[in-house]
Amino acid sequence: MSQTYLEIRNRFSNEVMIAGDAESMAGLLEWALSLGVDLSEAQLSGANLARANLAGAKLALADLTAVNLSGADLTETWLPGATLVSADLSGVSARKANLTGADLSDANLRNANLAWARLQMANLSESNLTRANLLGANLTGANLFETVLTEVNLSGANLDGASLVGAHLGGANLEWTSGYESEE
């Protein structure tokens, strides 16, 4: 694969955060992370980051709208306030990721591993989390309006103050979950 000059800009100031020759945007991001670059506020909307290794990345307030992150490693990634609207996060590993206040509305999180993730005040409205692992996740105050939570593992999760209006919980594991009261 040939290399192309790529750059990542700040979503607010439009300043170049990092630039260089890379085979893909995922490659540029992985290189930036190897250099310890803080990519908070990065403009990455629409990028193909499938299967990228972004473990431990600092992406607070980043714009990841409609990004393909399927199969990516986001373990312990710092994403508070990030925008991930309509993003494909299917099969992602985001164990212990910080997604506090992130907007994940209309995102595909099927089969995602979000064990012990911090999702306080996150917007997950109309997202699909079918068969996702949310073991021990903190969803305090999260918006789960019309969210598909079919066969999801919420064991030990904290749902205090979360809005579950219209959420689909068929087959969900709610064992030891706090803040959830069945409507039965």
Written account of the structure:
With 184 residues, the protein is largely without helices or strands. The protein has two domains: 4-38, no CATH class; 39-184, E3 ubiquitin-protein ligase SopA (Pectate Lyase C-like). It has one helix at residues 25-34; strands spanning 4-10, 16-22, 42-43. It has a three-stranded antiparallel beta sheet with strand order 2-1-3, with helices on one face. Strand 1 and strand 2 form a beta hairpin. The mean pLDDT is 96.
Question: Could you list some keywords that capture this structure?
Answer:
5% helix, 184 residues, 3 strands, three-stranded antiparallel beta sheet, little secondary structure, 9% strand, Pectate Lyase C-like
Could you say which overall geometry the principal axes of the C-alpha atoms support?
A: elongated
> Could you estimate the helical fraction of the residues in percent?
under 10%
- In terms of quaternary structure, the protein is single chain
CATH superfamily of the largest domain, please?
Answer: E3 ubiquitin-protein ligase SopA
Largest sheet: 3 strands, antiparallel
Text of the CATH class of the largest domain = Mainly Beta
* CATH fold description of the largest domain: Pectate Lyase C-like
Find the structural class using helix and strand composition: little secondary structure
CATH architecture of the largest domain: 3 Solenoid
Give the strand line-up of the largest sheet: 2-1-3
Strand content: 5-15%
Radius of gyration: 16 Å
Helix segment tally: 1
Summarize model confidence as the mean pLDDT.
96
- State the end-to-end CA separation: 56 Å
Number of strands: 3
Whole-number tally of structural domains: 2
Low-confidence parts = none
Order of helices and strands: EEHE
